Amino acid sequence: MASGQYPSRPGYGRAGRPCKVLANHYLFTALPSQSISHYDIRIELKNPPKPDKREQPTLNRVVFKQLESLYRQQLGSARLAYDGKYNVYSSRPFAVGDALAVDVSSQPGQPAGKRQPREFRVTLRKVAEINMASIQAYFRGTMKSSEDLIRPTSAIEAVLRQVATEKFITIGSSFFTGEDARPIAGGLEAWFGYHMSVRAGERGMLLNIDTTVTAFYQEGSLLKLACESLDARNESDLARMLEHPKFRNRLQKILAGVRIYVTHRGKIQPRYVIAKIADGPASRQVFALGETGQRTNVAAYFQERYSVRLRFPNLPCVLNARGVAFPMEVCMVESHQRVGRQPNERAVADLIKLSATRPDRRCNITNGAHHKLQLAQDPIMRDFGLQVDRNMTQLNARVLNPPRIELGAADRSNAIVTPRDGSWSLKGQRLYSCPVLASWAVVAYADRRRLPENQIKYFLSTMTKLFVDMGMDVRAKNPPILYASQHQDTERALQSAAIAAKKTHGMPAQIVFNIFATRNHIYRSVKRIAETKMGLMTQCMLAKHTERPNLQYCSNIMLKVNKKLGGTSFKLARNMVPYVTSQPTIVIGADVSHPTGAADEGPSIAAMAGSLDANLSDWNLTYRTQEPQLEIIADMAEMVKEMLVNFRAKTNAVPRRILFYRDGVSDGQFDQVVREEVVAIKRACQELDVNYKPTLTFVVVKKRHHTRLYPTNPKDADRSGNCRAGTVVDSEITHPGMFDFFLQSQAGLQGTCKAGHYVVLYDEYHFKPDELQELTNNMCSMYARCSRSVGLVPAVYYAHLMADRARHYLSADEDASETASMLSSSTAHDYMPLSSALRCRLIVS
Length: 845
Known about the structure:
Elements: E1 17-23, E2 25-30, E3 36-45, H1 56-70, H2 72-75, E4 80-82, E5 87-90, E6 99-106, E7 118-130, H3 133-140, H4 150-165, E8 169-171, E9 174-176, E10 182-184, E11 188-200, E12 205-217, E13 220-221, H5 222-229, H6 235-241, H7 245-255, E14 259-262, E15 271-273, E16 276-281, E17 286-288, E18 295-297, H8 298-306, E19 316-319, E20 325-327, E21 331-333, H9 345-355, H10 359-373, H11 379-384, E22 387-388, E23 393-399, E24 405-407, E25 415-417, E26 436-437, E27 440-445, H12 453-469, E28 473-474, E29 481-483, H13 490-505, E30 511-516, H14 522-534, E31 537-542, H15 551-564, E32 571-572, H16 578-581, E33 585-593, E34 604-611, E35 619-626, H17 636-651, E36 657-663, H18 670-688, E37 695-702, E38 709-711, E39 727-729, E40 740-744, E41 756-763, H19 769-779, H20 794-810, H21 819-824
Parallel strand pairs: 26-28, 27-29, 27-30, 30-31, 33-36, 36-37
Antiparallel strand pairs: 1-23, 1-38, 2-12, 2-22, 3-5, 3-7, 4-5, 6-7, 8-9, 9-11, 10-11, 11-12, 13-21, 14-15, 14-21, 16-19, 17-18, 19-20, 23-39, 24-25, 24-32, 33-34, 34-35, 37-41, 39-40, 40-41
Organism: Thamnocephalis sphaerospora
Domain Piwi: 510-811
Family: Belongs to the argonaute family.
């Protein structure tokens, strides 16, 4: 299959009500007319210590700045742009020719006298002359391949990054001022900054600017960071916690890679990088003195050598890569350090709250960032011949009509509702179809005194009454209620509940409710055991929701329980998705989840969800583990074949059409995905039957982008100030040649909505723009967990859920020291499979 041969845009959509929106893209009004010289740069340290990988980008820029200053004559009058890694771009060739090798000496980040100066060998070698005229040729239509834009785009991005670097703190493609930092959970702080990238649009090259909020370590006491990371009340509490391996392991995952400096030597404050946490306290951390070989401990050494009596000798030390130990109380966290791991749940929640900015305010902040960059006055921009429009791009958009939703009614006739602003009310409504609830049980992981049985019974009474009102036949209204300790064997608790349900109701348990006093690791354990060992559906909830039963909360529970028991809460009305209903059609969503945070040494997980009926109500789920950070789905053929076999078993027909939505793929991976994944899907069909050749459409779904759409007219905004649900854009900011569109299928709740970006990489069906856009938008109202449209097609969301759940399956105990090694040793065939009893039952929470 040829690389880069993607479907071209088959025209523009016309369905829906026209409107105008702003996009946070700024058009380049001038581009370089001359070539740009591209050089490869290598910065090699000549003397130890070797810099930490997190320190390397900052160090590279310090060295590069010294290079520019010291060797200006050799470099000539050209302005240089450095991407922070291996690429330098020059507005004109160097005066010394195609190569330059020089030595640079510096003491980056440290005053004189603290350490021997670090010396670097810097080598510059010319790679190419980039023909910037190819950009204009592409947009004039005289150059067809968008691959010719890759090098010019990279050069322009490097220039913009160089401009930002000289004015702000830059990290990757984002830049920060360091102002207005807000403390968040876990000893961290939130920094407000801006993301910046360059992309090709239909009208020309565009500068995309967006706001971002990122977690940084708070500068200051390492001891304070350790306490807040583990929620320790004070240093003594921290010491008690760190006696246990699980807390030491947790803290080590948090602190590994953090840059510190030490204060016990007065004005001399060397810098180090934390590698690990010692197993024992400083008072028992024994080592041999180099001069005499005499053995002593860290606490005694600090008292004798530095006259520093440790206040907390019972705390473990931190160790650098060479094993040198430092008591936490003499360590200070350096400033300007972005958190390189996934922050804890509370910190993530804080970041989400801080980033939830109303659309009008976010639009103003973005324009403010453009002003702060002062691109029009910047000498580097002028030297490279770049100019950017001051105003955001105004676009033609359309608001698609919402789909009609079919529910049930008391007289069993059909009830049709039309969403308003992306949602519809279930008040007074019955669900489309509901199963019988005849056997179930409840396990409360809480103290009976804090969560009395009468409180649980009252909640269950309120909830089951609502279940009945919404159409469910609840024959077992008084399930057995069991109590379990948070430290009790979860499997035993679930087995006891299943036995109690069968004894009480005379049939196997259909579902077990689990009530937790607080959010904790038991949830993972419950899901892992119930779904991989017992083939048992579960519904989990927090005890606080039983205190004053809320009908909206109970309604949400009903949607989940109904789906888990095999019901259909609602479906799209007739003719809403003719592509799916006119012929046997399977819709598949796929995603690859990569390890982060505590499990960052584990495998990547490829997950897939495939529809089993024309109502898009029943889904088959599967997953595989694969090599860490591998984005391509290694077992694509086998997973797709599993989907097709289950579809055939359910419908007695093989699908004649396959619509495949693939999440998590970057632009640079498009060719590889077509070469490997599309070919694997074709192979799966051939393995099923050599003559089986369904039409395949393969669409990449992107949500990790920075495009934002803002309504220009209040009548085109919903109550949150966002564009209305169903807003679609398929021109101007879209790709110059490919078939893609932005669809904001959801209404705003808080903050600024992000549209999904859909890119068609393969299409044997030959979709028309309106057909694919309306189909995708309508399917976004079929997410089983809520009565509102969502921001991505449900097939992809279900694949997300499966991948997240699979991570729980693999993590027997998130704090166990063997977890990381267990995960890292997993292979594509070493995983805990979903119980066969549940494989075709959608897991929605």
